[in-house]
From TrEMBL:
It comes from Nitrosotalea sinensis. Keywords: Flavoprotein, FMN, Lyase, Prenyltransferase, Transferase. FMN binds at G9, S10, S11, T35, T86, M87, K88, T89, R121. Dimethylallyl phosphate binds at Y151, K167. The lineage of its organism: Archaea, Nitrososphaerota, Nitrososphaeria, Nitrosotaleales, Nitrosotaleaceae. The keyword Flavoprotein applies. Its EC number is 2.5.1.129. The gene is pad. It is an enzyme of class 2 (transferase). Flavin prenyltransferase that catalyzes the synthesis of the prenylated FMN cofactor (prenyl-FMN) for 4-hydroxy-3-polyprenylbenzoic acid decarboxylase UbiD. The prenyltransferase is metal-independent and links a dimethylallyl moiety from dimethylallyl monophosphate (DMAP) to the flavin N5 and C6 atoms of FMN. This is Flavin prenyltransferase UbiX. NCBIfam families: PRK06029.1 (NF004685), ubiX_pad (TIGR00421). GO terms for molecular function: carboxy-lyase activity; flavin prenyltransferase activity. InterPro entries: Flavin_trans-like, Flavoprotein, UbiX-like. It comes from the Archaea. Belongs to the UbiX/PAD1 family.
């Protein structure tokens, strides 16, 4: 499997790092794109460094590199996840404003009818945010907000992060044991 992973500058960069760690263990070919604000959030919110995060991907492109392979539909992938996804990026994607590589790769993913999952991490939401999400949802984009479930009784932040990452993996049929699935007796 080949996925594009976009990390943007919304709080919650840990979701993206964990996604990369899990995909590496699953031997998924990952093309990573990081915005400048994602790099800043990495420093502000975690103890990870950029070198470590880049090491989790098979390929890396700066968000300003509009000539990267993932900017073309001829570059085959199985889809893309933007985790976390800023409202600025979500708006760019919803409105076809492909000024950055993350937005361009998402646009290519949509035009090639590939799976696109956006993980917005913002609260509260304005009507504009909701309208942009609805616009994308209506054309088949999966909007998967960072809203963890608590039925599995999380004991740590890792458990909460793993639940959201696992929900993203489910969208691509990638097997995992990141959380306990709901079962009734």
């Amino acid at each position: 499997m080949r996925l594009i992973i976009g990390l943007t500058g919304s709080s919650g960069i840990l979701y993206g790092v964990r996604m990369l760690e899990v995909l590496k263990k699953c031997n998924v070919d990952v093309h990573l794109i990081m915005t400048e604000w994602a790099k800043k959030c990495l420093v502000l919110e975690t103890d990870y460094d950029l070198k470590y995060v880049k090491s989790l991907a098979s390929h890396y492109s700066d968000d300003s590199n509009m000539a990267a392979s993932v900017s073309s539909g001829t570059h085959k992938t199985d889809g893309m996840i933007v985790i976390p996804c800023t409202m600025k990026t979500l708006s760019s994607i919803a409105n076809g404003y492909e000024e950055t590589l993350v937005a361009r790769a998402a646009g290519v993913t949509m035009k090639e009818s590939r799976k696109l999952v956006l993980v917005p991490r913002e609260t509260p939401l304005t009507s504009i945010h909701l309208e942009n999400m609805l616009k994308l949802s209506k054309i088949g984009v999966t909007i998967l907000p960072a809203m963890p479930g608590f039925y599995n009784k999380p004991k740590s932040i890792d458990d909460i992060v793993n639940h959201v990452v696992g929900k993203c993996l489910d969208q691509f049929g990638i097997e995992h044991e990141l959380f306990k699935r709901w079962e009734t007796t």
